[in-house]
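ASSEMBLY PREDICTION REQUEST
Request ID: AP-0331
Submitted by: J.K., bench scientist
Number of chains: two
Total residues: 935
Priority: normal
Notes: Please return the full assembly, not individual chains.
Input sequences:
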Amino acid sequence: MTQYILRRVLIAIPTILVISFVIFAILALAPGDPLAQFALNPAIPESTRERIRASLGLDQPWPVRYVKWVSSVSRGDWGISFNTKAPVLDLVWQRLPQTLQVVGLAYLIAILLAIPIGIISAVKQYSFFDQIGTIFSFIGFSVPSFFTGLVLILLFAVNLKWFPIVYKTVDGSGWAGFGEQIRQMFLPVTVLVVQQTAALTRFMRSSMLDNLSLDYVRTARAKGLKDQTVVLRHVLSNSLIPVVTLVALGIPTIFAGAIVTENLFRVNGLGALLITSIQNSDTPVVMALTFIFAILTVIFNLIADIMYGLLDPRVRFS
Amino acid sequence: MTHKRLWTWLVLMVTAATLLAACGGAPAQTPPTAAPAAAATEAPAAATEAPAAATEAPAAATEAPAAAATEAPAAATAGGKLTILYWQSVTILNPHLASGTKDFDGATVILEPLAHRNDKDELVPALAEEIPTVENGGIAADGTSITWKLKQGVKWSDGSDFTADDVIFTWQYCADEATACTTSSYFTPVKSVEAIDPYTVKVTWNAPSANPYLTFVSYNGLILQKAQFEKCVGAASISDAACQAANLAPIGTNAYKLKDFKPGDTVLYDKNPEYRDAANTFFDEVEIKGGGDAASAAQAVCQTGEVDYSWNLQVPAAVLSPILESGQCDAVTASSSGIERIVVNFANPDPALGDKRSEPDQPHPFLTDPAVRQAINIAIDRKAIATNLYGPTGEATCNTVMAPAQVVSPNTKCDRDVEAAKKLLDDAGYVLNGSVREKNGIPLVVSFQTSINTLRQGEQAIIKSNLAEIGIQVNIKAIDAGVFFGGDTGNPDTLNKFYADLQMYTNSPSDTDPQGYFEGWTCAKVNSSANQWQGGNDGRYCSAEYDALFEQFSKELDPAKRNELAIALNDQIVKDNGIIPLINRFTPNAKAKTLDGPVGTTFDSGLWNIHTWKRVP
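STATUS: Completed
Returned structure:
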């Protein structure tokens, strides 16, 4: 087991290096200019822009920049953002709490909703509840979050004025601050929950259905076990194995933020940071974020594999 | 048992469905119930804003008038928080290292220049005691220097005194090329800045200057504190940790000082107790929140009332007009924030030419013919573009400059006249062959490029149909804005290379003095591979008459004569159809009706007078 983990970690290192190289190359070769906003301004001529680019180290060819980047990251220095002219990690740390609060909470709620809905839908297959559940999950699947978000904004913020559309980084002191935080989190969390519940519900349902028709279930029923015990104890625990893997693999996406939703509601999370940095060609920030996502994805893949082995004794590591 | 559960669920679902239906129906019913009388009585319910049941929906909808009514008594007393929303977010507060307008605006709340420019483009003293002129002896008659008298007793927010040293330091900071100031072109014409006494500074120019108010004015001339930035000159400006921190938290002299800054998200300011007129500072706190999109930023001021002021609402008229008409807000517009124009390529962009493509020595086969350019000019329906696409955010224009007022030409005309356009082309020998005209076997087919943007694609469609009417076929191309406006010399789709026949974008002078702007049409500035397409004259327009006028303009020091020459330059380029101006754009900002103070400015930050902003009933 230890050997297996060690081997996986060692394989991960070149994987991550290759990922970082590919991202850096794409960013370097993609068109874009951190000073594009000033492109037409006669007061900021090309010579000034050239000097600013040089001060940011952009005058060197990109392979050189990549080697410099790798060597400074290996020393723990993630560089400075072109926009804030301050360390990239400071920005990431500032954004992380909002993303964990909004996207993380939505993920948690989605799991808590999806598992029971999936179980009921499977046990009472083709029942009224199952039909409704199916309809809602297909709506959640097929309607993009920018649409759900806009509908919710129009209905609950513009017309009813129950919730704000501008997410603010409140201090959150006391109950008033807490209440305000809940209020402003409501719409973005709802949008994300709708989307994530849909996928997980379908997965949970089909996994339950696979197990319900198996011989061991019939045996358990024949033994005279209560319906509840059969479903919750035997079928559920077996059906959860693939779902747990899926949930573990989904955790890195929390850290990636929800780009569209965060942007729509102005949640200052990592997703919003990523998209504005891409738009402004702020390479160091984009590199840091994507690199962190890559590491998290590799780690959680490993965790998912290990968990699979722990939950399912038939799987053995070699 | 299973049947029992099924029934429980059924009942639950039906209840949920009813509730949902009730919620969904609520907004439709609200307008008739939102009577003014109800507003007063329901005020307490609305104030608590309880997101309770569907029955409360009508009460919540009346909240707008109620909120306005309850805020009225509070408006008389100062205090509270001013909330500003930008759809781009402030990322740095040192204006000289800014990467966008939003950064200049964020810094303007803290820092001050010697003088601001107001909504009429006039100078208003900020840190200066008075505006130097030739009459009061502040400006040398030969144009070699300007002497500013500074306000005395001004203190930085840390309690230290503001003196001439800080002004000199700001020049030294940006004059050092290694600092890589965004604003460096405002400091490079300066030969020296000297302190005559602690409250008088003399700026000497490298050459006699026709624009003495170039330096230390508006958001480009915000004064930094010497004590804070002393060690940050040169490369240290962004590499040193202390300087990185200073760039995010400058000490200033304005009415507000920094409280908290989350780069790329929120800037929070509070009252600066050291401000010279601190007793009259209205708000306790100012917040600038960034992010999102322009349309919902407008909604946040005009419909939900969450914020007081929202910046740069570049939104199509069809979306913006209903939002602005909701009655809770006013649009704040400047006289001009740029001229949307079509640039005509005088060089031949034919791909068959290879490396010689769009080079100035390859004349365009038909766009060099004045008749064709004039026909295009008068065939375009500017009014349709203005009313259908721009609405409150733009109006038709024939000029290349619409601000400041003294250089706006009254002489130009560009009324639509399709018949005259056809006649021009007929007379010049372009005859219809099917639906497209041709001459000497060359058909009038033009490629027309611009950036990807809903508004611009709408304009392209109108212009395409306008030109089809006179027998010119237009092939439309839209390019990602990052590429089109980007400076990448390796990319063929930049506006600088201009590998098309026509292209469209917005530009305007960056200063009240349009010299740099007009220089962009001189022969010396023509873009070519030799200057890496960075000259600035993307259309490759080159006219001896225009160059002679510009030569005269750049040497003239008398303001009145300069204005006349600026108008002559404008008329020349418009007469030649070197560019075809379309729309004078206003980028409206929106302010809540309860906020007093914001005015539209063209050459300074929209927040330049934030120290006077206050709440009104």
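REVIEWER COMMENTS: Chain A has twelve helices and no strands.
SIGN-OFF: pending second reviewer
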